[in-house]
Amino acid sequence: MYRSSRTRSQNSGKKATTLSLGTAEYPTRLNFYLDPPTGEISLEEFETWALDRLYVLSEIENAIFRNKTRKEFDLLLRKVLDKHLPMSSNMARSVKGAQVDAERCKDHYSHFILRLAFCRSEELRRRFVRLESILFRFRFMQEEARERQSFVDRLHFQWELVSEEEKKLLHDKLTNACQRNIDSDTFFKVDFIRVPDLVERRSVYISRGNAYVPFSEQVSLVVDDFEQKLLMAMEKTAKILPRLDEDDRLVPILDNLGKGFIAPEYNSQSVSKKAGEFGADDIDGLVRYFPLCAQHLHHSLRRDKHLRHFGRLQYGLFLKEMGLSMEEALIFWRKSFSNISDERFSKEYRYNVRHQYGQEGNRRDYKAFSCQQILTGPQPGPGDAHGCPYRTFSVENLTQAISSLGITPDSADGREILDAVRNRHYHIACTRVLELSHPAVGTLSETINHPNQYFNLAYATHPASNTGK
């Protein structure tokens, strides 16, 4: 799992990086992840699969933070899993064949990759274990009864079965705890600390430190065991991590994954405007539809008549993806830098604008930065305006910023945003600001993960957005 090797690609003469992960048999969709995989996947798969799982865990955390109902949570998670971590049942083997095992391999590998990223601090370990346990519970409850029981049988849990004699002696107490007829139920006896959710709901009878758990509540026992095993495994990995032979190319990937539960790349194909549909003179009137990061860049540019390198890069690519053509971008930046001469602008800035549009240098088509790239990229220093304001602003400055958007900081909504920031849920705070400052967007099912996604959703509420300027 932790070593890397170089192998020659069958499709080209170039060397492709592969990582030692491995093949395994997956009789069901459920997995306790007791053994790490030991085969090979590419470096690209290593990162892509990890980001897919990270997105799933991030959306689970978002749904909890936003107090989704059970029905809303289930619908959201099913949708997210179908897109990022699909897991077909055994009944689909006749149709999908090897794809069934391929899906389960991806699930297996992505779990262990994120273990490496999130075992590095107690807080990350706690969050990872909690979210993985919620994901496991959801999958366990969604699994077909026969496959679910087959999975449980293979785990050989050491649960003490309550005899019929003891059940008869405790019949009334067990009935009162379960609030239903228990005559046909089988009970297990376990330490009460292993089923805290059942104890909290008063769904089990407790005597001498033992909880009497009906078979129908088996999921609580299984999830508790999953959680305890995962926590111990994470602590063990944290101890041996410094001694692991990690490939230098993996370190930045793992570091970026471990910086927080951040949504993956935004699909730029969903951009609402085509290049040329906005002009340089339109930008000032569009700022109210910008996310806070782009608003801060724009206001800083208007105030100082200048932006430093990373600010120009972040804002320039945002405007490009929004639909500002290269010709209009050159006009916009020239007018914005009004305190310098034409000669200096041409010498120091014109090339960089053309480079962003792929017209200079290696002629690469640069994409706007996603929230992930902004949060994990170079952070602003004195005089800089780039970055994510939810991460970099002081409480006072952030309070002032959301107030300017019509959100009262002392209101329930304002406190919700500031609480999200304190908990480092920056994308949740940004999503909530969008919902409050542009009520017509409604309540979003998924969180904002790209500044242009924010703009597209906000601008769609503009009356002229569907009919032209």
How would you describe what is shown here?
Belongs to the eukaryotic-type primase large subunit family. There is one protein chain. Mean pLDDT is 85; it is low at 1-24 and 262-273. The chain has helices at 43-65, 70-84, 93-96, 98-118, 122-142, 145-155, 164-169, 171-178, 196-200, 218-240, 251-258, 283-286, 292-304, 309-322, 326-336, 342-348, 350-356, 371-376, 389-392, 395-404, 412-422, 426-437, 451-459, and strands at 4-8, 15-20, 40-42, 160-161, 187-191, 205-207, 210-214. It is built from 23 helices and seven strands. Helix 21 runs antiparallel to helix 22 (426-437). The protein is elongated and about 95 Å long. It folds into three domains: 43-152 and 226-261, Up-down Bundle (Transcription Elongation Factor S-II, Chain A); 155-220; 282-461, no CATH class. It is an alpha+beta fold and 469 residues long.
